[in-house]
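Here is one chain, start to finish.
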Amino acid sequence: MNRPDAAVRRVITDLQFGESLEGEVYLVRQKDLRTTSNGSLYIHAVLADKTGQILARMWNASEGLFKSMPEGGFMRFRGRVESFKGKPQFIIDGMQTVDDDAVALFDFLPSTTRDIEQMWQRTLEILRGVKHPELRALIAAFERDQEFVAAFKRSPAAMQLHHAFIGGLLEHTLNVLELALLVIPRYPRLNLDLVLAGVFLHDAGKTRELSCRTNFAYTDEGQLVGHIVQISVMLHEKAREVAAETGRPISPKVLAVLTHLILSHHGQYDFGSPKLPAMPEAIALHYLDNIDAKIQLFLAEIDKNADEDSDWTGYVPALGTRIFKPNVMAAPAE
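Its structure:
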């Protein structure tokens, strides 16, 4: 699922005052039907792509036009960019609906900067190093599930926090797999196969928890059940598939310890773990997962605030602190 070829388009952050657009596609993030002081109707909307968003207005509108505008969907717009209180505002002169399937999500949602297929192939390479036959059979059952694999490559790892972009789940999972290969051999009493299987599956329920059709949102199942329980259910479904195909049921103890790694990987009850880590492999998975999540969150906040003059970001609630941005250890300029 690499970035598809597409004609050069005008991204929102590049729009200039006085510029006219003809047939550009944007995501309708918000819309509202309002009334002017003389009683006529106009549409107040927010249009977006992956680079940002812009306030938009359509004067002399109607309820019919307003209803034809899909909130959370795509439309093709004709209009011009004007200044409103010193900021760009898009005046809509015309619009038409666009089939969502004809739109490249990479143009409208934040996406990984890495090659998705290369990451997936490296993930498979690592997982094929798992030697335990029952763990290997369970992993293979997920690998054969084309719908699961497609969603695993596409899904974000979160709505707003770490790896909240297309391909984020795959990127995060691969990062943690690579960390496991570096760290777990330092502790020979830990079972590397079990940790690798746990890493692969720990967030895989997000393929059902999160939707990334035109924006990132929780599915109904995601809101009601959550990704930890979902992947636990999926794992037991795959175990039944393996048993039906091979005639050899997965050992209940193997299934139980792998399920435990999934249920405990958030590390604390307050963070949504149904169980606390009760095995060395489980606590290892928790901290390896947290290393990658927290570092990516720090770096994303630094990048988000890169253009501001302050050496510090604003307060980041998820981290409980502001972040110091300068890399003071960088080589001095010649």
